[in-house]
Amino acid sequence: MQNADEQVVPLADYQKLATEVEALKQRIAWFERMLFGRKSERFVPGEEVAGQLHLEFDGEQAQGVEESVRQMIAAHERKVPQVKDKVHPGRMPIPAHLERVEEVVEPDEDVRGMKRIGQDVTEVLEYDPGRVWVRRIVRPKYARVEVDENADQSQVVQAPAKDLPFGRSKAGVSLIVHILTSKYVEHLPLHRLIARFARSGLNIPPATMGHWVKVGAEPLLILYEAYQKLIFDTFYLQMDETRLKVLEDGKSLPRTQSVGGKTHLGFIWAVFDPIRKLPFFFYQVGRDHKGPKKLLERFAGVLQCDGFGVYETLNKKIDSLALMNCMAHIRREFFDAQSNDAQRAQTALTLIQLLYQVEEKARNLGLNAEQRLELRLKESKPIFDQLGEWLRSEYNRVTPGSAIGKAIQYALNRWKNMLLFLANGNIEIDNNLVENIIRPIAIGRKNYLFAGSHESAQRAAMIYTFFAACKHNQIDPEVWLTDVLNRIHDHKLSRLQELMPQNWKPAPTKTPAKA
Q1: pLDDT of the residue at 82
Q2: pTM of this prediction?
């Protein structure tokens, strides 16, 4: 019998508590994996749990689904090539274009009268630290000995002052280019650069160093505006965002937007055109839809993104926008749900893996957009339809609050949008390309921690844009920036596209005129 002091827990409350306990277990498992486990999302069918494709269906339905999945795996299984003994390629050759400084080591013995029959040569790479030097521009002055009073002549003759890119700034183009590439390509904070210059005997105040960054970026603003107009003139873009702390008082900001009252949590938004391989970054004070909306209002086409709710808002507010989601994010939900329901999670992962095998096949064959769409309709669509049916059938069999339930719900909410990759061969199955271009920003902010102001955060977004474009076009950003800063001050506005990394060609060297 039940004691009078014991309380009966209602079934609804018990189920709620059980769901909360399960959710907490999933969070603990995730944190343990982040702290101690493998952080990659590598998945090999059958590696984690044996019998992962066995589903708790009834009778013929269970056999039908399981057999269908197994047949798809067998049909798309790649042949594993036999591993051959690797032949060591030998030591890395030293590039022939590098300057050689010859050092001849003669024997101690007197070799006079001997015949030289050969030599042994050893080449060793050496390095001299960066050299800071002073460019002295001297303009001699000359006085006329005889002056013609009737002619409009000055008594003093002197060459006109050179039109320098940065006016009276003490920093030349090469120095400013080195500072910008060191910070935004090599991710060195300015205080480390200051220390490096100090070791060379050049002491640069922090305020001066920050001013030089601003001076070097200002000529690029007009090029950035032209580039911004170009990036949205397409029908397919990918978009993502990442945080960036900005140094600010924070008193005028909502508490949710300030960090400790000292830095503001801003966001750099990334846009990527997968067809033309054009990256673009812009900074916004917040993470709401207002900033991106101003830019996307001029865009008409497919926007691929993750499941962040702001993109759903943009889709509702901009009629010309069609939303495409990301299979990699759907996959991630199931990967994290393995500790909750390994069989269901790994079934979904297996089917998603088959979809990616088709994408890999298309890349290896070098297919164009039309050929890739044809391959997808032939091989990906049956797998995609099978996965969709499985998601809908399993949704009512799982607890909505569990990790596997949330993963299935996440996929179903975005399943209609995912259909776009079966309608156009140009559209990628995920938005990994835009996430890849964000990585340098994530590395940089670990080193310099924050931007000095909202203005400097937008300036960083502009410089990251051009350096990312240089990377995609296999251009040395230091060479590109040096050439552009020397040319842009007298370049025609109607020909600004010539200076963009995707169109850029070095300025022709001037040959001296023949006498």
Answers
A1: 52
A2: 0.78
